[in-house]
Design goal:
With about 160 residues, the chain is mainly alpha-helical. It contains ten helices and three strands. A hairpin with a 3-residue loop joins β1 and β2.
Amino acid sequence: MEEIFKKRAIETLESGSALDRYNGLNFLWILGKIDPELAASKKKSIITDEISLVRVLSYCTSNGKVSGRITSKTWQVNLKNIEEFIDVDEAYQRIQVYVTTNNFLTLSEDNQMNVTAFLLTMKKKPENGIMENHIVEESIQKELHKLVSNITSND
C-alpha cells in the first residue's frame, strides 16, 4: 500500500494537479511519515512559477475568528511550513514583484488575501506569541486595496 501511495503522490505532484485542488497538498504529511526524504525533495520541487508559489502560500495560510471585546476574522501564515517548500525570504522577494503585475489581479480573492497576509506577516516578522501571528482582515483588505490601486494606476 505504501508503494502505491508513494507512486500516486509522485504522479499527483508531478502533474501539478495537487496544486489545482483546495488543500490539495494535505497528503504530504502522510508521505512524510512513509518516506521523509522523498516528501522533502518533492516539496522543494513543487514551486515552478509564481502561480505555484501563490498556491503554496495559500496552502500555508489559514483564517478564522478571534474573539475578545470584539470578534475579528484573522489570517495566520505559517512561515515554518512555507520554509519546507521555499526559503521564505526568496518567496517574499518574488511575491513583492508579483503583486505589482497584472497577473496578481487574475488571482481569486482568497489567493489575493492570502498573498497579502503573507506580505504583511513578513513585514512584521511574527514572534512565537499567539496573537502576533494573526493579522486582522481589515488590515489585509486595506493593504490589498493599495496593491490593486497601484497596479491599476500604472496601466
